[in-house]
Design goal:
The protein has 83 residues and is of the alpha+beta class. It is 37% helix and 13% strand. It has 3 helices and 3 strands; from the N terminus they run E-H-H-E-E-H.
Length: 83
């Protein structure tokens, strides 16, 4: 599996969090660290963002699949969507 970097607009879309909120969480160690891509350009690893979302969903009492940045409820066996 290859990982990919996502930039600010995609990270905002996936997480639903503002730049400031993510920055605060990142500083508190509660959000994945941004990584330098090139001078003046940062991004996040998509796998780390997916893992962060999955961990938050488990804390909230729900599990989600990690497929293509879409949060879809899955059943107890981890198969298929819950209706």
């Amino acid at each position: 599996m290859t990982d990919e970097f996502i930039r600010e607009p995609e990270c905002r879309r996936i997480t639903g969090l503002s730049r400031t909120t993510r920055w605060r969480l990142e500083r508190a160690g509660q959000f994945p660290q941004r990584r330098p891509i090139s001078p003046g350009c940062v991004g996040w690893l998509l796998s780390e963002i997916d893992d962060w979302i999955a961990a938050r969903a488990v804390v909230a009492g729900r599990r989600y699949s990690k497929s293509c940045n879409r949060q879809q409820p899955i059943d107890e066996e981890g198969v298929g969507a819950i209706a």
